[in-house]
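All the exercises in this workshop are built on plain-text protein records. An example says more than a description, so a record of this kind follows:
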Amino acid sequence: MIHLSTLALILSSSACAAVTVSPSEVGPPAEEKLLPPLDDRVARVLRHREIFHTPDNHPLYRATCQIRTKDEKYSGSGVFIEQDMVLTVAHLARHCEGGFVCLEPGDQQIKVIDVWLPAGAPLYPFTRSEDIAILKLEECVEQVTPLDMLFEFPSLPTCKRYESVLLSGCSLGYKKQSQPGTFFYYGVLKTEPFSIKLWSPKGTVWYGDSGGPVVIKRGNSYLIVGVISGFDALDNYVVDVSVTSTQYYQDEVEEYLNNN
């Protein structure tokens, strides 16, 4: 059984990587004003543990990694797309050149030697536009099997509304992925074609999941359709999970991979 004191310690020591935005409130910085009372946070962690699990042999779980900044402060999540390339979000990657990638929290660190960002990538963590990035590593990680992106297989069907998707990340000090039937693809907005919207009747992402992959299953393969960018909270209740679409950045991503 998880004691509240243990969960409180986890929450107090973990850095916040996912973006939390509340358009209905103004005042102190968002990371301060939206922090719910400890009891609410503990309850949310318990729900989080119910909808996520740690299947060691799953392709998505194995390809997911933790990202740390140069000073080794916890930063967020990513997914291997080559043995020396990690896909993540720009609001994390901007601070990760010279940082590290770990297959598991606390595991061996692989140094980041280059960062690709779109031209309009966010300067600040509360900006989701252009929120995608690639980290190039100092060496190949041979024990990793990278995941492909959906746009690499143009003959395969794209996502359909309410199709089940899987999420993965390294928040709360451990790596995990969502249970099937927790998150569903919903679509994109005309005003935000770069951002995929998800729907979930059961749970949400948590601080630290930013940069984690969102995948769909095609045959026996799990293909990346996006990376977790953030979530919107109203009255301390998460109402929307935002995901940056890899398809929207296909040309730029392919150009960087081909040249590196």
Remarks:
- Helices lie at 4-13, 30-33, 38-51, 59-63, 90-93, 250-259.
- The domain at 63-146+251-259 is CATH 2.40.10.10 (Thrombin, subunit H).
